[in-house]
Amino acid sequence: MIADPLITAAMAAREKAYAPFSHFLVGTALETESGTIIPGCNVESASYGLTMCAERVAVFRGVSEGYRCFKRVAIVTGAAKPTPPCGACRQLLWEFAPNAEVLLANLSGNVVRYTVRELLPNGFDARQLSDERL
Q: Which of 1, 6, 79, 125 has the fewest CB atoms below 10 angstroms from its CB?
């Protein structure tokens, strides 16, 4: 059994996922600098482009509650191998948690650890934004 409370929270969030089309349930939990855990789950739509990944749900929820920095993230799926976040989620995690530890887990108890920087090397952020005109 997995003892990390962040992974446990992500597993619980996965149970609330709404995925009637893909049947791919994903749960995420973010840990803030203060230790608060913020869960999120994927939410699908019949208009597939409106589907929201669990990672982004958790980040948006955390930001809406006033958090701007996260130190860890756990992502749990029912896949045979732990599943990394999609590109859009990696980019959003870069914005709020570039140094965060990422725990990828599945229901069998397999856990793989990365950092956001390992998952998205040379991420795009405010440093690339400029007001200069050519």
A: 1
Q: Please give the span between the terminal C-alpha atoms of the chain, in angstroms, as a whole number.
A: 57
* 104-122 pLDDT tens trace: 999 999 999 999 999 999 8
Active site residues: 55
Residue 101 φ then ψ, to 5° = -80, 135
Residue 31: alpha-carbon gap to chain centroid? 11
Look up residue 50 and give its DSSP letter.
G
Q: What is the CA radius of gyration of the chain?
A: 15
The confidence band for 2, taking pLDDT boundaries of 50, 70 and 90, is low
